[in-house]
Amino acid sequence: MSMEIRQTWEKYIHENKLDPSKIDKVISDSWKLSKKFKVNPNQGVGNRILTTSDFQEKLRNNETLISLAKRSMDRFRILFKNMDFILVLTDAEGYILWQSGNERLRETAREIGFWEGSQWTESVVGTNAIGVALRTKEANIIHGYEHFAKASQRWSCVSSPIFGEDGQVKGVVDLSMPAHYPKEFDFLVRVQLIADYISEALQRKAYEDQKYMLQYYSSKKQPGILCDSSMTILHISTELINEPESYLGKKLNDIKTTDWLIGIQEPIWKEDACIGYFVHGLKQRVADKTFVFPYVAGRSKTYHELLEEVKIVAPTSAPIHLFGETGTGKEVLANTIHVNSPFSEGKLVSVNCGSIPDNLMESELFGYEKGAFTGANANGYQGKIEQANNGTLFLDEIEDMPASMQSDLLRVLQEKKLTRIGGNQEIQVNFRLITASNQDLKTLVINGEFREDLFYRVYVCPLHIPPLRERKEDIRELIKSYEDANAWYPFWEKELIEVAEQNQWNGNIRELNNFLERCHVYYRERTPTREQLIQLIHKGGLILQHPETSSEDINFKEQIEKEQIMNALIQNNGNIPLSAKQLSMSKSTLYRKITKYRLN
Question: Residue 421: exposed, middle, or buried by beta-carbon count in 10 A (0-12, 13-18, 19+)?
Answer without folding.
Answer: middle
